[in-house]
């Protein structure tokens, strides 16, 4: 309320209360007007108060809603982060499981499972396309002596290094794997016996030239191998058995050599 307004109200109140103006014909009408004006003012004040309370309640409600929304959003973000992390862990675990079921943990070469699958696939492919393939079984000579004389850890290092050299010597589409113990298998797709023999000789030569240092000594490793070319309509296991028999012949003939299966 302005100062002039307050002064005007004060003047009206004084005039209405003054006994001197009691008989003035305007005094009654002014009194009624003053009364209505005061009532109107009171109602407006009540409405303003109610509106203020309502606005403040609405503000509070808005605030609590916003806070609740923020809290739920933060919880959702947390759940999403946990779920992302969980999914990442599951993916890694899956990969690790797949790796463990298809690879030898020591040498990281393929284990029997993928080797057998690839041999089966090659049998199918060779039947369909009339292409041949070869299987080479390779075995470290006198490996028991390496373990006995130098210990199991050195034996493990020999296996790891042999696998590394073997893998480095074969072509990208060949498959090297650990068949078990000190025995390895190389699958050579689209390869005839003569070419496969050259590749196996190259592998054997590289392994012979491997330098495995043991203090001042160097450990020399030799490999025997048996090689078989897949025959039309032969199962993968029959080819494998012929390669194995050729390996046995190579061992019997004095080791450090490769024999071709008949
Ligand atoms: N260090 C180590 N040794 C292994 C592993 N797997 C198998 N061996 C050993 O490999 C040796 C194989 O011995 P044998 O089957 O007698 O073969 P070898 O001594 O190589 O004899 P030939 O094959 O006839 O030349 C055994 O002593 C096994 O304990 C392995 O993962 N690590």
TrEMBL record:
Any Gene Ontology biological process: negative regulation of bacterial-type flagellum-dependent cell motility
CDD domains listed in its UniProt record: GGDEF (cd01949)
GO molecular function: diguanylate cyclase activity
EC category: transferase
Enzyme nomenclature, EC number: 2.7.7.65
Residue span(s) of domain GGDEF: 131-262
Entry GO CC: plasma membrane
Catalysed reactions, semicolon-separated: 2 GTP = 3',3'-c-di-GMP + 2 diphosphate
InterPro entries: Diguanylate_Cyclase, GGDEF_dom, Nucleotide_cyclase, Rev_trsase/Diguanyl_cyclase
NCBIfam families cross-referenced by the UniProt entry: diguan_SiaD (NF038266), GGDEF (TIGR00254)
Record-linked PANTHER family: DIGUANYLATE CYCLASE DGCM-RELATED (PTHR45138:SF9), REGULATORY COMPONENTS OF SENSORY TRANSDUCTION SYSTEM (PTHR45138)
Protein name: diguanylate cyclase
Organism: Chitinimonas taiwanensis DSM 18899
């Amino acid at each position: 309320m302005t100062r002039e307004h307050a002064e005007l109200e004060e003047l009206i109140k004084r005039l209405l209360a003054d006994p001197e103006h009691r008989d003035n014909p305007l005094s009654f009408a002014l009194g009624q007007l003053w009364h209505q004006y005061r009532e109107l003012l009171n109602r407006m004040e009540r409405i303003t108060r109610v509106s203020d309370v309502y606005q403040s309640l609405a503000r509070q409600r808005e605030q609590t809603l916003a806070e609740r929304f923020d809290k739920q959003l933060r919880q959702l973000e947390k759940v999403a982060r946990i779920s992302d992390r969980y999914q990442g862990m599951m993916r890694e675990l899956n990969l690790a499981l797949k790796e463990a079921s298809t690879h030898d943990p020591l040498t990281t070469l393929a284990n029997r499972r993928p080797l057998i699958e690839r041999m089966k696939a090659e049998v199918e492919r060779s039947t369909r396309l009339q292409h041949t393939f070869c299987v080479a079984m390779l075995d470290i000579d006198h490996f028991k002596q390496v373990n006995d004389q130098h210990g199991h850890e050195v034996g493990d290092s020999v296996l790891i290094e042999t696998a590394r050299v073997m893998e480095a010597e074969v072509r990208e589409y060949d498959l090297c794997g650990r068949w078990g113990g000190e025995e390895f298998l190389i699958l050579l797709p689209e390869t005839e016996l003569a070419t496969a023999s050259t590749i196996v000789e190259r592998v054997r030569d590289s392994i012979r030239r491997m330098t495995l240092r043991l203090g001042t000594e160097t450990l020399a490793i030799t490999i025997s191998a048996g090689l078989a070319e897949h025959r039309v309509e032969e199962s993968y296991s029959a080819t494998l058995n012929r390669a194995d028999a050729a390996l046995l012949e190579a061992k019997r003939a004095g080791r450090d050599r490769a024999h071709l299966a008949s």
